[in-house]
Amino acid sequence: MTVLSLVYIFFSFYLLSSLLISATEVEKVKLEVYIESGCPVSQAFFVGELSRVLAMPDINSITDFKYVPFGESFYNQTLGKFQCWDEDECQTDAIQLCSLYKLSNDITVISSGANSYTCFPFISCMEANSGKTFY
Prior knowledge:
The chain is α+β, with helices and mostly antiparallel strands. The chain has one domain (27-128). The protein is built from 5 helices and 4 strands; from the N terminus they run αβαβββααα. The chain has helices at residues 3-25, 40-54, 87-102, 108-112, 116-128, and strands at 29-35, 63-69, 74-76, 81-83. It has a two-stranded parallel sheet. A two-stranded antiparallel sheet has the order 3-4. α2 (40-54) packs across α5 (116-128). It is globular.
């Protein structure tokens, strides 16, 4: 084997290993979805396009999915509490947030989105079967 062949083999190995290392260090695409619970437009997106995307093979290996049931909610400083479009939305948001929390009993998963993939089937079922419309 010539020196040139050894250099070529070494360089090829180095290039391949650096590509493999780079591929594992690539940052995932952040996918944060804020849904107004019970809203027909949000429901259609959630159980339609979003469901199809999240059903793709290995999609969780390239995305960081974070689900936030918040929608039209806001913090009313005068009243000192969160308010929603109506009481049904507040209750549904609370149930969905609770499901995110209860899978791990770790409150930080709500802000990190760590259980969003796991909770997706349950939350999708809730949104698909809600007959409430706000319009």
